[in-house]
Design brief:
Oligomer: single chain
Strand content: under 5%
Structural class: mainly alpha
Helix content: over 70%
Radius of gyration: 13 Å
Distance between the termini: 46 Å
Number of strands: 0
Length: 72
């Protein structure tokens, strides 16, 4: 039987954040990820895990919106 690896807390939260942000923007998680990738912000958002997970989601959304607006 193949061994199943558990996702890291950081990756699990990133997926959760992606889905919630997509819901907030009335779009799909794939589109959000493509936009983050296109703006070169995916790694930044993943590295913000310690801060984002300790705050309200809306603060993370505001930061992502701000970063995307500056890049685009």
């Amino acid at each position: 039987m193949p061994r199943v690896k558990k996702l890291s807390n950081e990756l699990s939260y990133f997926i959760y954040l992606l889905e919630k942000y997509a819901e907030y923007k009335n779009t799909g998680a794939r589109q959000v990820l493509e936009r983050l990738d296109g703006a070169g912000l995916t790694q930044y958002v993943m590295q913000m895990y310690p801060i984002y997970c300790s705050e309200r989601l809306e603060k993370a959304f505001c930061d992502i919106d701000y970063r995307l607006a500056r890049v685009c």
